[in-house]
Structure formats: structure tokens, C-alpha cells
Design goal:
It contains 24 helices and 20 strands. By secondary structure, the protein is of the alpha/beta class. It has 3 domains: 303 residues, 3-Layer(aba) Sandwich (Rossmann fold); 170 residues, Thiamin diphosphate (ThDP)-binding fold, Pyr/PP domains (Rossmann fold, 3-Layer(aba) Sandwich), CATH 3.40.50; 131 residues, Rossmann fold, CATH 3.40.50. α1 packs across α2 and α7 packs across α15. The longest helix has 31 residues. It is elongated, with a radius of gyration of 28 Å. The termini are far apart.
Amino acid sequence: MTESPTGLSPELDRLCIDAIRVLAMDAVQKANSGHPGTPMALAPLGYLLWTRHLRHNPADPAWADRDRFVLSVGHASMLIYSLLHLTGYDLSKDEIVNFRQWGSLTPGHPEFKHTPGVETTTGPLGQGIANSVGMALAERWLADRFNRPGHNVVDHYTYAMCSDGDLMEGISHEVAATAGHQKLGKLIWMFDDNRITIEGGTDLSTATDQGDRFLGYQWHVQHVDDGTDLVALDQALEAARAATDLPSLIVIKTRIGEGSPNKAGHHSTHGAPLGDDEISATKTNLDYPSHEPFHVDPDGLAAWRTTTDRGREIQAGWSASFEAYRSEHPELAVEFERMMAGELPAGWDAEIPGYETVDKADATRSWSGKVLQTVASGVPNLIGGSADLGPSNKTDINDGGDLSADNPGGRVIHFGVREHGMAGIMNGLALHGGIRPFGGTFLIFSDYMRPSIRLAALMGLPVTYVFTHDSIGLGEDGPTHQPIEQLMTLRAMPGLLDLRPADAAETAVAWRIAMERTDGPTWLSLTRQGVVPLDRTEFASATEAGKGAYVLAEASGSAPEVVLIASGSEIGIALEAKDDLEAAGTPARVVSMPSWFLFAQQDESYRDHVLPPEALARVAVEAGSTFGWARWLGDAGTAVGIDHFGASAPAETLYERFGVTTESVVAAARDSLQKVGVKTF
């Protein structure tokens, strides 16, 4: 008989594995919801990986050089909760019992920052594996920057468990192709090939040979024909770890609901409790020592908990090595700790220009590109790129070098035409720690990125999106490329900070805000066309943009009778309308509102200062959907915008034809004034 790779008896191995199955079955049954089948099938793999291969310390889930584990198949959350509990993380049995209940640490799908040991929020399929590519990229970049002969302070693997559903999602293609091209040899995906979907067998919807598919991506591919065979699983993991020149896919045939005598292999075990009778029959079939709910055999638990001692020893060895590294390379050690803590270097922003005076019109995307160079010079771990639009997005870092297999320390990532993959990888870069990621595309293509953007907001990740060509101002490319509703739909997302700067000075402030934010993502909305140059010696300082909205130009002579609100490229229109209104005797204030998110965070007194409650006549002008502007305009206000798709024509023509003009703003101001009973000229 072949000896177990764990060094334990077959009986004890079985007790340890079945503990996962029991916890998963019982937790789902008590909650009356959840997914027991996949945790039961992957129990042997989870046990072997977490006790023998994974470098981690349950006593310190945030240890910098730990291996990263991603459960991309997030609905199988009871697998990771069982693993966390059994190996000794701060996740008690009570939390397992309260699976999916209010206030528990065991929500329906794993959540980053909520449960100790969970590396990323998963559930939307494909997202976890996308994050894992970013994590592996981060590991390699940091290793290149910090490792020195005799000192590998960054040296770990990234593991991800994925499902048929993960690999069906389109994002899987984008990130797998990227990983293969980058030759991420320390990335290992374990594919649960159970051939089951919610509706039935996978043959209902696909005939893809995933192994062949990944060979085409230039991955190292292995097959394990029996997901309960610990020896075969162990050998595959060892071989994957040894294949350091290519990412690895291990195709593992499993049986969903393994151990259940009547439901194993059937899609009914995917997303529903087994039922009390079948759970009892399963425990009998497993020859489990107790039918008591949530029972873990003491001998099995003791075997599991040796992982804690192993983890402490591994981390202690690394810590001793790091102190030796600190003695030889003190500056690098300090920089490593700073980067991993998510802190910006002292004086990082010293070179950011203020742009108080600008003598020519230019696009805010161009100003952003100039500011980016100064930010990159002060923040060496700022890395990113574009979805094949670098020259248009102005997202290249001068002299940063292309990040590639041959140049792992490069700072410019060429994501290719893979917007969704880019966003998912950015999340992984941020989740790993040590990296400040950014990525660019046209604003219209943010639609491809929304699932990953949403998860960045949900997880509070400090990533920066550079969205250019942000209105009909992009012109001749026409309605397919002209964003209309995107400004508003992104503003509607909780936790996502919007910044639509009006000029060079606001663009510089926007980058400052984005870099200083540590608790969530930020997006910059930037123009293709030139914007009016603002002399900040005549107008309010752009530093006020940090409050979301501010008085850019005060009404002449008296309190404003009408307030004109604008963002980005439409500030010039608002200023011209102010001049026309005041020439006719109507005092008008212009408010620049680059960020709804930040303005909403200000106290009531400041908001009332910018938008006086007595100034009921208000007009907003923005070259996009008018939906939502009522929040700032009130009942008497009017929004000038575009509530239909665009057209192909030069930008100037489109603004005129669609009525986003000075004349339209003036007319809207008259209407608003009449609504509040103010006589107009």
C-alpha cells in the first residue's frame, strides 16, 4: 500500500477529510441554504493543500510571504470556512454553526476583510482566478525588486480552486491568456472537473476540453483522474510547483457530493441542503464516528491543528531571514515594509505641478499623462497600463519598462484588449499588497469592467481607473464609443470615488486624491478634446476640488440668483453662460463639481455654502445623461445634458446639435428663475 503523503494513517487522513464534509453538510442544513456538494468533493484536495503544501500561519493571516489561496468557486464557501476553522484560524465552531446568518463571520460567499484568512471576495464566477493572476504578478514584481543573493524575502505561490463555471466565464480567457504570456510559473489553478452545473451536466452547454484549451494558453497542464487519491493529488501539486516557467492547471475529476450514498454525482447537491435523512445516511456511509451535528473527532482536529505549529515555524524562519536581510540591506527592508503596509513614500507628491496658470487648451487626458509621470517618480510601486489604449489613455510610465516575463520589474502592463481581465488583475495586485495599480481604457468600455469594479468597491481596494474619451467630445467614432449613461451608472456604485476634472489643475488634484485614498477605488473621467485653460489666479484654487464641489467663480456684485453647476469639459460652457447672464443683469455663480462622492461626504454647512438653499434657481450642464442631477438641483433646477445616444461627427458639431451649449444653459437658467418667481430679462 502506498504511504500517505501526509505521513498519517489512512484512518486519520479519512477522519480529517470527512470533517470538512460533515461541517459543510451540517452548516448548509442548519442555514437551509448553501452549497454542500463542492466542499464535499474538494475535501481531499483542501486537506492535502492546507496541511502539506500551503505556506501559511493561522496565527498571522497577514504574514507578507504567505502563499495566497483563492477559492474562486465562491459558492463553495463552506470549504474555506472549514479549512480556516480546522487549521486554527480565528474562526470558531460557533461561526460555522451560524453559517449565512446575520453578523456571522461565515457569509454565503467569502468576503475579504470580513473573515480572517480570506484573501479575496468571491462568488461572481471568474473573479477569483482573475485576482490570482494579479497576485502572482505582484509576487514576481516584488521579488524582482527586493530579493538579493542569499535573501529571498518574497518567495511564495498563488493557488486558486476553480470550477466549470469559473472557466465558462469570459474573464477566464482574458486572464489565462495574460498569465500564460507572462509565464507566471508560481501560479497554480486547481480545476474541479465535476462535470456538473446547476441545470444538470456540463454537456448541456459545453464540450470544451479545458486541458487542451490551457495548453493553447501556454500553461503547464496535468490531469488527476480521481479527486480522492491523495498520492496523485500530491504528485500533481509537486509537479506544478516545479514548473516555474509556466503557470499550472491541474484538471481534477471529482464527484460532487462525494460520500453521499444517494445524491453524489447529481446536480441536486450543488445548491441545496442534503436533508436530514441523507446527511445521516452519508455519515453512516463514511463510517463517521458521530452523527451529532458539527462533530469533529478530537484525533482528527489534533491532526489538523499541527498546521498552526508548522505555520509558526515557517514564519519564524522567514522572520529570522528577514532580519538578516535588514542588516545587509536596511533601506530595502524599510521600503519593503512601507510598500506592504500600503504607505506612500515621504514627499511622494513633491513634483506634482499645481498648474495655476496654463496658456493653452489641452485635453484632461493629456494633463493626466503629465501628472502620472510625476506621481510615478514619487511612488515606485505604482504600476499599471491600459487595455491596448496606452497612447490614447496616456497611461505609459516614461522609462518604466514593460512588465513581462523577461522584465519582471517593469512598471507598464500591456493588458491587451482585455478590459475585464485588466480590472480583475488590478484587484489581485492590490489584494496581494505592495502594489498600487492603475489601468486605463475609454470610459465607454468601463461597462466591460463593471463586475470587477464593483468588487473593488465592495472590498475597499485602492485601485485607480483612468477613463478617457469621456463624452460625445470624442467625436467621429460615433455612438458606439460615446458614453452617455456611464458617468451616472458609475456614480451610483457605493464606495466608488468619481473625479471628473475640469482643467490641468483639477487633474493634478484628482491624482493626488486617488493616490491618497486607501479604502476604496477611484476613477478619473478625462476628455479627448481640449478644455478651456483656467487661470487659477483669477478663479478659485483647484485644491478645493478635494471637497467634491466648490465655488469656481462667484456671482458679480451680489448674491447669486442662479447657480450653474458643471464638471469636466463643460466648465467652459458654464463660465460663458455666467458671462451672458450677468451681462443681462442676473448674478450667476459657477460651481465646479468634479466629484459627487466627495461632495456628498461634506457636512451640511459646506454643502449649503456651495449650493445656498435660498438659491433655488440652478442649472447643471454635463455632456451625458441628466439622470440623477435632481439630487443637487432641487425641484426648480434644470439639467442640460444628453438623454439619447450620440452620433458620428466632429465634437463641436455634436455639442451644438445636441444642445449642450452656452445658449442652452442660459435658456435653462431663465426657465429655472421663472419657476422660483424671479423675473428674467
